[in-house]
Amino acid sequence: MRVDAGLARLLGLSRTVVAALAEEGHVAVDGRAAGKSDRLVAGAWLEVALPEPEAPAGIAGPAEVVAGLAILHADDDIIVVDKPVGVAAHPSPGWVGPTVVGGLAALGYRVSTSGAEERQGIVHRLDVGTTGVMVVATSEHAYTVLKRAFKERTVEKRYHAICQGHPDPSSGTIDAPIDRHPKHDYRFAVVADGKPSVTHYDTLEAFRAASLLDIRLETGRTHQIRVHLSALRHPCVGDLAYGADPTLAKRLHLERQWLHARSLGFEHPADGRWVQFESDYPADLAYALEMLRD
Question: With 60 as the cut, is the pLDDT of residue 281 above it?
Fold first, then answer.
C-alpha cells in the first residue's frame, strides 16, 4: 500500500494528516525519509514522529451564586447539596447556565481536583431539570471512595416521580438496556445493545390519571428513570421530551418532568459510617402533587 493509505489505516488518522507528516519528514521506512506515495512492503521498519496533541479548550464555568442551591451537609470530605431546577452539575460545552460546581465556588467551598477539569469533585450527576440530593467530593480520598461506591452500586439512590397512568404491576423492576437514541442525539432510549440499566419502583399513591412512585436506581444511566418509564408507556408527568401529555402538564403548571432525587445514602468516605440525606419537594412539584390529590 502507499504510505499515506497504509499509515491512515494503522494509526486511525486521515490520509491528509499522514500526507502532511510525510511531507514534513516525519515518516521513515528502513531509516530513510518516505514520501506519501512511496510503497510499504512487508518486513520494513516504519518510524513515525507524531506531533504533541493540542490541549483541549478549557470549559470551566465561572463561580457564581446559584439561587436556591442549599447546603444539606458539609465536612472535610463531602458537600451534600439540594440542587434546584435549571442548574447543571458541572460546566459542559454549550451550557451557559448556572452549575453546582460554580455555585459551590461562589460560596467559598473547595472541591476535589480529581476528575476531568470541568467536573472536578463530581461523582454523580442530576439532569438540569431534575431537583434533589446530590453529593460532591471535597477531598481526593473522598472522590476515589465515592466513585468506587457508585460504580459498585453500594449507594442507595431513591427518587420520587409522578408518572402518567398506573403501572402494572404497581411495584416492579424495569431491566432494559439504555443508550443514545438512534435518531435524536439529545435523547436516550431502550436499545438492544445498550448499557445494562435496572430501575426498581413502588407505587406510593394512585390518582385518577397518574401515580406517585418511589424509585430505587440500581444503575445510573443518563435519563434512566425518564427513559424506563417512557418505555413502559407511563412517562414522567411534564416530560414532553419523552412522550408526556402536554395538556396534563399545562393543567398542573409543570414546565419540566415531575422527578425529584428524594434521598441519597452511602458509607461516609472518612470512616465508613452510613449516612443518608433527604430533600423536600420544591414548590412546583409540591403544587402539582396537591393538584392531583384534589
Answer: yes
pLDDT tens, position by position, 123-159: 999 999 999 999 999 999 999 999 999 999 999 999 9
- Catalytic annotation present for 185: no
Contact 133, 72 (CB under 8 A): yes
State the Cα–Cα distance between residues 100 and 98, nearest whole angstrom.
Answer: 7
pLDDT tens-digit readout, 243-279: 999 999 999 999 999 999 999 999 999 999 999 999 9
Query: Cβ neighbours of residue 185 under 8 Å, at least 6 residues apart?
Result: none
| Helix, strand or coil, per DSSP, at residue 65 | coil
**DSSP per position, 85-129:** TT-BSS--TT--S-BHHHHHHHTT------S-GGGTTBSS---TT
- Residue 69 burial (CB count, 10 A): 20
Instruction: Out of 47-51, 53-57, 141-145, pick the least confident.
Output: 53-57
Distance CA 160, CA 262 (A): 6
3-class DSSP state of 55: coil
Q: At what angle do helices 3-11 and 15-23 cross, to 10 degrees?
A: 120
This prediction's pTM: 0.77
Options 4, 127, 202, 239, the catalytic residue: 127
Distance separating alpha carbons of residues 279 and 70, to the nearest angstrom = 10
Closest alpha carbon to 265 in 69, 78, 75, 71: 78
Query: Which residues lie closer than 8 Å to 243 by C-beta, 6 or more apart?
Result: 230, 233, 235
